[in-house]
Amino acid sequence: MGAGHDHHHAAVSNAAHRHSGRLWAAFALLSVLMLVEAGTALRTGSLALLSDAGHMFTDVLGIGMALAAIAATRRAGTYPQRTFGLYRLEVLAALANAVLLSGVAVYVLVEAVRRFGNPPEVLAGPVLVVAILGLLANLAAFTLLRSGAQESINLRGAYLEVLADLLGSLGVIGAALLIAVTDWWWADPLVAVAIGTFILPRTWRLGRAALRILVQAAPEHLQVTAVHDRLAAVPGVAGVHDLHVWTLTSGMEVASAHLTMAPGAEVGAVLAAARAALNEDFHIEHATLQIEPGANPGACGAVEW
Fold this sequence. Notes:
Elements (H helix, E strand, L loop, with lengths): L2 H14 L3 H25 L2 H28 L13 H30 L6 H23 L6 H30 L4 H28 L9 H9 L4 E13 L2 E10 L5 H16 L3 E7 L8 E4 L1
Parallel strand pairs: 2-3
Antiparallel strand pairs: 1-2, 3-4
Pfam families: Cation_efflux, ZT_dimer
Organism: Micromonospora craterilacus
Subcellular location: Membrane
């Protein structure tokens, strides 16, 4: 692997590894509360609590993916046949998360619509107690992840998921209180619909992003034509072809290209300038650049960064 790949390993190691203990604590805490919420939702008939348990599942999976990324960097080089490590496991987990959570959200929305005609009674007491425990668990996880969110993109994603789930817990608490005080059973399906409609668009965005990575499409924030034009503008480059830009895993873009040398150009200078252009203008740190001689027969080779 090249220096860019090693740099990515170091970034994950230096930031996320320092916070792995906090990640494990948040993972364990939210996993337990997720199971408690799901079990209580089935026992009390609360759709709002079930939808919140589904949302909490995204927190658990997000933290799990961050832990998996840490484990992948620790085991880098253990399997020489896996030349790109285990980065795609994070993407596959994200896709599985999107599919599973979409199913939960659709079920909640359909069931909520069905219940609007004749809302069943919901045991507000147990729902309220478990929702408050869920809120406290999210607050604890929020505190555990806050410092690491400034240093690692994986931790930042998990942190934002927990932050969003706080709103869901507050919604369930509000519904439980309203039912306990007024016996207004419609509060439960209404909150369930609110949480479900909040989850679905974010879930679909996650699934779409995972699919883009798996089909090796160019990152949405990068224009391939702009990358082509920038490489073509490097002094000593006469032409650019076979340009490919894709995402290996979240936050790690990869590129490969063939560069045709201009007459009299020096290989080392061209490669250094092309590397700097990709890194500084597009934050692509891992690139394979092949030099083709063009009118300069002595300049041919492939260099990876």
